[in-house]
Protein 1
Amino acid sequence: MQQVHVRKNAIGEARLVDCDQGKLADDAVRLEIESFSVTANNVTYAVVGDGFGYWNFFPVQGAGTDGMGIVPMWGHARVIESNVSEISVGERVYGYLPMATHLDVVPGKLSASGFTDMAAHRQPMSPVYNSYSRLAADPEHDPAREGERMIFGPLFKTGFLIEYFMRSQDWFGAGQVILTSASSKTAMGLASTARHRSPDIRRIGLTSPGNVAFV
């Protein structure tokens, strides 16, 4: 197995490290990571990693790892070994992954559409990051759009949740919403959702002159 270790206090410094996978635990599944996206969102994970616990999702392995961490990514993986009867080798999943070639997860809360990694070190973190979609029964999955999903999916959900919260509060009596950094994926997701779910709210975007045409 290989992992990309990034220095936490100097994220421009990274190294590719060979690690021993070891024996798969009795209640675990081993994933081979096929693809993940790298965006400004992942830089945010690294910059605020200590304050928000992002470095805790995927601990580094091996000697000489003090001060190093693994940046989380969103992507796709395939089951290559399974000690869970409900999950078969060859099955593909989508979710939160390390910058690495492999990941062991402990599936729980199993359903046809997904599962949650119940590994002890991940339980203090938000369950949003610990949930994996099983692509064979995932209505969001489009084989032709896997790249777009990795890039836009996580932050579209953030925009969706912002709109849901604001609408549940009747937009706090406001008639318009101002979106700063309007070219960002979160802002675009919020604007799109608000257009459909809160059409009476006027949407105003702020962006740089160079991004006006794009936005």
Protein 2
Amino acid sequence: MKPALIIGSTCLDVILHIDHLPKTEENIRPTSQTMALGGCAYNVSHMMRLLHAPHTFISPVGGGTYGDYVAKQMRLQGIPVSVHIPEEENGCCYCLVEASGERTFMSYHGVEYTFQKSWMEPYQADSYGLTYVCGLEIEESTGINLIEYLESHPQLSVCYAPGPRGVLIEPDKTNRMMALHPMLHVNEGEAAALSGCSDYQEAAAALQAVTNNTVILTLGSKGAYCLEPGKEGYLVPSVPVTEVKDTIGAGDAHIGTILACLTNDMPLADAVAYANRVSAAVVGITGSSLPPELLPPLLKKETQE
């Protein structure tokens, strides 16, 4: 398959471990603080790199304290900075991780969530197949530029992750995104909010009726439900997790793994099974970037050997 095109943000994640979310006027002390690269698109591209999947990563990097950190870390990791706008501020994400491992995000958006069509001029759309975009970029005022770019290049197969703020995106933008017939990657809560259906199977069917394409619905400890066009839906079981450090980037790692596997011509069911194991490994570490040595090996059934 052709290389994938990953479009979206790279930001600084400031990860604060706390016992519980603070109440008004409460004074709490985080037990630890770490910093790392994050952002949905960055997390997806990280899995593409780990799995040696051919792709191009389009991520604008700004200036300021956060932008300087992002640019330096990307260069240290050998990641090309495709769009550098040092005169505009880069944002960051404050990740509050409770003792249970569940996370709450407070995102300060900068240039990293914007999009301009001119950035794509060096890249021939015909050279790419799967294309990942996230709802956070679509929600921004420049999200219409991204939608128009995708509309003008129907040869790109869109994978869309609306995210938890997907229901807040302007209806016209959502309708135009769905008209692109994207493969959807959502969790159970996101699917319910977007479809109005509380049952995950009904939610997947309702979303597929709009997109006419595959819906991948993550269900936490239950695994992932897949509904492909013209097929019965099927549940791909999860794998046990010994310890949950935090859930930062688990969903991004899941879809990033799926895209990497699809780019390497793996069947979807096997790609989702492997992605379940990868996301289980991600929740066992602090932060979103799985170290190469913790990447689960591919099983024989997943490689179709």
